[in-house]
Amino acid sequence: EDVKEVEAEKATVLMFPDPGICDSLGNALLRFDDASFGYGDGPVLFSGVSFSIDQSSRIAILGRNGAGKSTLLKVLLGKLKPRVGACQQHRGARIQYIAQHHLEALDGDSRPLKLALERYPGDGSNSHELRMRQHLGHFGLSGDVLPHQLIRTLSGGQKFRVSLALAMWEKPHLLVMDEPTNHLDMETIDALVKAIEEFKGGVIVVSHDEHLISSCCKELRVVANRRVSQYNGTIAQYKQQILKGKA
């Protein structure tokens, strides 16, 4: 029988797995080398992009709507190729991406444990299922109810935790998130902040969430005027500049 009632929320805790060290020599996970990009024969969205990303990176990508932030992520992830220059990925790097519309990508008629085992079937053993249950528990999806609940009956925060658990199963060295806080309550955002602080991998996030960025991100990069520039102020200062029309 379907479990229709959403289980009462417990205190949200997120625990990211340790990815281990990708490169003992300290080489970057990803490196932009004078990269430029535009769609087809259309105008250049950004050019001259040069920066590197490693396991200690905590980067927020900022910019107005339509500036090309999500496109920059697609180039970074290798989904799009630069017109000139390069975006080089370390051959041993494990990278996971949570898209802006990740909730729509989840099958509402599936259930967290079923979905996870379909995506990562392992050897099909009971011990693999037990490991998956333990993994889901690290993302607040434990107990007898939540792992078997129809995904469409879950809250926005619970659905995000399903997406996050799926992304983190392979222990990525780099986690890339596009607007992750859109459907999250404050408690889940706080749990995400704490998990990022303790994570041994790199994080890149497109977000407007001042709390998330100010708590986690050591590096701010702004997509504007066909450039991707390092911003040396705070997220609060950047938002003030936006309001004044100076950014």
UniProtKB/TrEMBL annotation:
SMART domains to which the protein is assigned, alphabetical: AAA
Matches recorded under PROSITE patterns: ABC_TRANSPORTER_2
Chain ranges of the ABC transporter domain: 30-247
Keyword match Membrane: no
InterPro entries listed in its UniProt record: AAA+_ATPase, ABC_transporter-like_ATP-bd, ABCF, P-loop_NTPase
Keywords attached to this entry: ATP-binding, Nucleotide-binding, Repeat
GO molecular function list: ATP binding; ATP hydrolysis activity
CDD domains assigned to the protein according to its UniProt record, in alphabetical order: ABCF_EF-3 (cd03221)
Coiled coil: none
Classification via Pfam families: ABC_tran
Name of this protein: ABC transporter domain-containing protein
